[in-house]
Amino acid sequence: MERWSSNLGFILATVGAAVGIGNIWRFSSLVGENGGGAFLIPYLIAVFIVALPLMILEITMGRRFRGTVVSSFAALRPEFRILGWLICAVVFLILSYYIVITGWTLAYATFSALGTTTTFAAFTGSYIPVIFGIIAIVLTGIVVSFGIQKGIERIAITLVPLMIGILILMAVFCATLSGFWDAVLFIFTPDFSVLSRPDLWVAAFGQAFFSLSVGEGILLTYGAYLSKDEDILKSATIITVADTAIALLAGVIIFSIVFTFGLAPTAGTQLAFTTLPLAFALMPAGYFVAIAFFVVLFVAAFTSAISLLEVCVASVQETSGWSRTKTATILTAILLLVSLGPALSYSAAQLSLWGIPVLDFMDETIGTLGLYFTAIIIAVAFTWFLPPKTDGAKPAAGSAIKRAVFFVCKYIIPVTMVILIVLHMIMSFDPTDATYLIGKRYVQSFVQMGGVFITIAGIYIMYLLIKTIRK
C-alpha cells in the first residue's frame, strides 16, 4: 500500500479534503440565514466536541488496519464488509452531485478570467453546466489515477497553500472596504435569543460534519496511508483549526463585500453564483477579485471531490485486484453516467423529481441523512465492536483525552446523530404542502435517501450488538 511521503503531505491532503465549498459557500450561507454570530456557538460545539473526536477515531482506525473502508470493517467482523460498501455507495452518490457543483465553480472561474458576465439563471438555462461537470469529473479521475504521492499529495501540496494564500490576500483587500467591520460584527456577535431554535442546531451539526469530511470514510482511507510516527491528535487538531479558520476567513470576505454593496446577508445559496458576481462588477479591481474568489471555490471543491473518489477507488481496487489506473478509469466512467441526473437538473433540461431538482433532492436526502447514518455506522462499529486485544487501536488505552475521544464516539455521537435524523425528518414535514398531505413527497424522499437500505443496515447493527452482548 502507498504511503504519504511526509506528515505535511497528509495534513495538506486532509485539509484539502475537509475544506470544500461547504466552508466557503455553504458556511457563509448558513451564517447569513441563521442570524450571524449565533450560528457559531452550536457550530463550534459540533466541530470540537463531536466532529473532532470522530476525526481522531477514523484516522486512528485507518492507520491501525491499513486498509480501505471495506477491508477495515471486515477486519472487525467479516459480516461488516457490507457496511463498508454501504459507506462507499453513499460517498459515491454524494460525489455524483458534488462534482456538478465543482463544475459550476470551474465554469465561473473561467468566465471571470475571460471577463464574461452571465447570470446564474442564464448559466443553468443552457447545457454549459453539464460540459463543465464532465470536465471536473475527468480532472478528478486523472488525479486519483496517479495515486497517493504523485496524484493526491502533489495536488494538495500545490493547491491548498495557493487557496489559503489567495484567501489571505482577499481578506487584506476586504479590510479596505467600508463593510469590513460590519462583517466582523455580524459573524462574531451572537444573538443568544435564537439558540433555542432546533433548526439552528441541526444546521450547525450538519455543517460541522459536512465541512470536516467526517463520517464519510475519507479520513479512514487517508489514515491508512499514514506512517506510524504521526501524532494523530496533533494532526487532527491542526486540520480542524485550519478548516474552521478558513471558513471564518471566507465568511469575513464574503460579508465584507455583501455589506459594502448593500446586499442581503440572508441570500443563502444565491450568494456565490448570483449575488457576489453583481458586486464584483461594481467594485474596484473586481475583475481580479472575481477570479480569485472562484479559483478558491474551485480548488476547495476539487480537492474534496478527489478525496471522495479516492474512498471508492481504493476499496474497489483492493477487492478487484485491478490496477489503480484501470479502477479509476472505470469508476470515473460510471461517475459520468450517474452525475448526469444532478447535472441535467440545473441545465436547460431542468430534470426534477416531484418538482424538486435532482441535485437538491440528493443533497437533502443522501447528502444529509445519509451522512448522518454513515457517521453512526463508523462510530458504533469502531468502538462497540473493536476487538479488546487490538494492538494500540483503542484510543481509550492512553491519555485522558484519548479516553474522552473513545467515550464520545461510543456513546455521544450515535445518540446525537439519531436526534439529528429525527429532527431533520420532523422539520422536513410541512402539512401545508399538498404533496405532503398525500404523503407522496415525504415517502419518496425517504426512499430516495436510501431509507429502506439504511434501516436494514441499522437493524443489522442492532442484531450484531445484541448478539455480542449475549456472548
Q: Can you list the strand order of the major beta sheet?
A: 1-2
The total count of strands amounts to 2
User: Order of SSEs, N→C?
Assistant: HHHHHHHHHHHHHHHHEEHHHHHH
The protein's oligomeric status is single chain
Helix residue percentage:
over 70%
Rg of Cα set = 21 Å
Structural class comes to: mainly alpha
Distance between the termini: 35 Å
CATH topology assignment: Amino acid/polyamine transporter I
Portion in beta strands: under 5%
Low-confidence stretches: 434-456
CATH class: Mainly Alpha
Averaging pLDDT over every residue, what do you get? 86
Count up the helices: 22
Biggest sheet overview: 2 strands, antiparallel
Categorize the overall geometry. Answer: globular
Q: Tell me the number of structural domains.
A: 1
Instruction: Give the CATH architecture.
Output: Up-down Bundle
Task: Give an account of the 3D structure.
It contains 22 helices and 2 strands. With about 475 residues, the protein is an all-alpha fold. It has a single domain (about 5-430), classed as Up-down Bundle (Amino acid/polyamine transporter I), CATH 1.20.1740. It has a two-stranded antiparallel ribbon with strand order 1-2. Strand 1 (about 350-355) and strand 2 (about 355) form a beta hairpin. Helix 3 crosses helix 19 (about 400-430).
Layout of strands and helices, then pairs:
Layout: H1 7-18, H2 21-33, H3 40-65, H4 69-76, H5 81-114, H6 120-124, H7 128-145, H8 148-174, H9 180-188, H10 198-212, H11 218-223, H12 232-260, H13 270-282, H14 286-320, H15 324-338, H16 340-345, E1 352-353, E2 356-357, H17 358-364, H18 366-384, H19 400-428, H20 434-437, H21 440-448, H22 451-470
Antiparallel strand pairs: 1-2
